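The material for today's practical consists of a large collection of protein records. There is nothing in a record beyond a sequence line and a structure line. Backbone structure tokens are a discrete shorthand for how the chain folds in space. Nothing more is needed to start thinking about how sequence determines fold. As an example, a complete record with its sequence and its structure tokens follows.
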Amino acid sequence: MSLQFWKLWTKPERAVYVIGLVLVGISLGWLALAGYRGLENVVRWEVLNELVGFPTTLYQFTDGLLTYPVQGQVQTVAGQFLASPMRVYPLVATGTVAGLCVALAFALAGICRLPTLRYRLAMGAFILLLAVCRFETLGLPGGSGKWLFLGVAALFGGFSFYFHAFRTDVGFTPRLLVFLGLFAGLAVAVALGSSVVNPAMVLLGYTLPGLVLLSVGTIAFVAIEIPAAMVWLTSVSRPSARPLGMINFLFISLLYLLNLLIIWLRNTNVIDWDGLTISPFLIVGVSLVLGVWGFRRLVEQRELLSFREAGAGLYLGMASLAALTMAYAFATANDPLVELFEDIIVYSHFGMGVAFVLYIGLNFWPIYQQQLPVHRVMYKARIADLPLFRLAGLVAMVGMIAGGNYFTVRQGYAATLSALGDAYLAENQVDLAQTYYQESVAEEHQQHKGNYALASIALSRNDQAAAALFFSKALLKQPSPQAFAGLSDTYRQTNLFFESIKTLQRGIQTFPNNGELRTNLGYLYGKTAIADSAYYYLQSAVAHTQRDEVPLANLLGLYARNPNIMAADSALIDQVETRDDPAFEANRMALHLVSPRDTTAPVAPAWLSRAASDPLLDAGRFASLYNYAFVAANPDSTLLNRLQRAAQNPANQELVDDLVLAQALGRYRANQHLEAFDLLTQLAENDPKRANSYRTTLGLLQADQGLYRQANKTLALNSDTLSSFYRAVLLTKLGDLPAARPFWLTAMRQDSLLQGVRQALYSEKQPATDLEKAFYVSYRLDDANRGRTWETIRDVSLKTVSGASLIDTYLATRQYFYAQMILSQMGKPAELTSFARSMENLSAVKIASFRKKATATDSLAKTFFIPQHRALVAALRGSAFAASKQPDNARKAYEQVLLTGSAQGQLVAEASLFLRSQRQVKPAYEAVRRALPYNESEPSLLKSYVLLCLDQSLFDYAEEGMVQLQVIAPPADYQAFAVAYQQKVSAIENARNAFVQ
């Protein structure tokens, strides 16, 4: 089977032959690839993500006695696979037409050297092929389609006849170049003159019947190549043994023919033995490859024509044409055309195979018995010539087609109509395309191609009922996972939830290893209470889909929404591998928010570093950005600016409120408290439906910063029981127990624990539990003997937290010794909660600062503190440094106060006064001005504001500040400050007058 027979050929001839072989190889390769991809050539799996929010704690803080959770929605992403509408790809048609033109050029260059009768028949077939091209459908100028056909036929026919009759001396290569040039010129003319958008696709749609007939002829012609190869295998001489002989030839041939018979019986639904057969397209591919050798043997042994001048080009061209046509059938998922070729391959190879075996047996039995190389003479018949047996095989082939009631012919017609539907769909003539698809379905109603295309058109028109009907028909004969997914989604869209589940279950029974269907079924079960079924299908889908990040992300979302699954098997989270996918990252962060077991440090979503600065957010990107704002250890300016820009993008309009909420919580955790308060106020004002929730969040965060009056004012706008409870606590912290009492009564209705706390606070009973005692010690400041109650507290954390209240009382009354004694009785750090440990350290810093021990204060300030206490610790350091005449250290400490406690009025006032003393008036004024709206009842802050206004000659503002101060400050305090105020004003006026003079 050597291909080195061209040693006597010229280099250009060798090069052209190699190019022809490459063309055949590319055509067969594309056939294999398109056949392997199948429906995925035109229907892609797309992922539809949807947001599934559920309530959880986004942020929480504690005062050591109670924990205050900021509730909100965490966003998870639930993804499902959607089968896309059936698409058409004009570029595929263009590439196919280009390959067909090259193949026809090879064939025409070979036809020129055929004997006269065969030449006329071949050129007649080519002219007929041009006729079915229907050039008039290309919309050429002036309706010149018919004239184009005549011109093309005259050009190709003229040059062909010229080479055939007059220039027999012209070699194959020049002839090939001429025909390639003619095809190139024709392509340019059509491209420039056609008014249709995709002329190649329209041309191919109309030319398909002719191409199919030529391909059928080629398939039938090479149908003897595999039995011919068996002749070579059984008659070739072997170095150490005799040839295999006739018996082995008959045995191998019988197995081959039996395989074809089984395929035939399977196609006619007589048997169902798919696992025992070889693909017909593998058979035809092998036949076309063997034909490269076999056709040369045929023409040389029968002396029909010169293989060098005609046979090589003719065979390579026709083989490529057949392979390209079959590949186009797969590339467009035209299952009627695929089935036609499958039937033709089986019928032709079976009929021709039987005929060829009889031909070999009848003519070469004696030669086989003599152990001679039959393959060298197998086309030189002794008794009956090969064409007679080919004719018999052709008759058998036609008989098998007729035995199927010419169903194969109807499939060919249906395939052509579907191809025209594709062409006009590419032209955006949807109504005309729909008509062709409907006619195609009328010819073969169980086909997948036409029904799926009609379902796609119905979906584009939002006709779910029609789409469901066509998807159901597409599943009748050749079901596909995509059709099952499409049908299930139409049911889901029309609220037929259980029908949607049943459809996916049927799909998994048909395609048990399809990960997309398993993912979708897990997705649907995830919407129900059947979490274990959702887990099963999602877990099993991971190994059966190339896009395993979708079921993996769904698994994480399932874990986050169903903590019971994690409780049953806490190792599940460790089994999930990381994926670079926004939906996966979003669900991983959601799980981090709700799972105390997930202690991994969250990292920024990978897409943030790759995306544009102001991206349009899909479900996955939004959820990952939103969740990351709550889990990021230290929200930086990059994250916060991204949130702000995303909220300002009009494309994200539906997500604005959630983005602003995430930005507010992110800014709060980044110590931008005032900006966070502004954003939450804006949300509460702009969204009446969720205003209560936003006000609750705002009130809690204000309370976290010690703004108890402002928080009470915020929560007063709510009427729910929870807000009443928070107001009771806030008023208690403010020391206004009479005002808090009705709110305690409201809160205790649903919580028996609070009833005991209330009774202890209002002396309705003696404190019994450690919590009741801690509340009493912390908030009954009027009881000078509450220290005795404190000594009975057994919980070390509660004792430490309430003991801090005693220390504050003793320091306020300058009883340092007793404060130090209380500190010595607090718990050991290892025994305390984080808050209690921080409170203990804070008390130590307060005592050191009270004693004006700057070094000790600074040293103690470097121990452990939670974020709530850092601003106060910085203020204590600043006070100690200022008292010890260390202005640089004091300035740094007070700058830290403004950075971490910008909303805490007393601390801002203290820091601003120090900065004022250091002549840093503008930053001090700006800090006070920003904090003032949230500290309107803080006299020290108003005093700082008035002084800073005077420093900048803002007399009107200063006067307004004095009016407000008179309302909130005690009279004696106001009078004392008013005197200093008037002195300052007088000094400024005197300085101004002196300057004028």
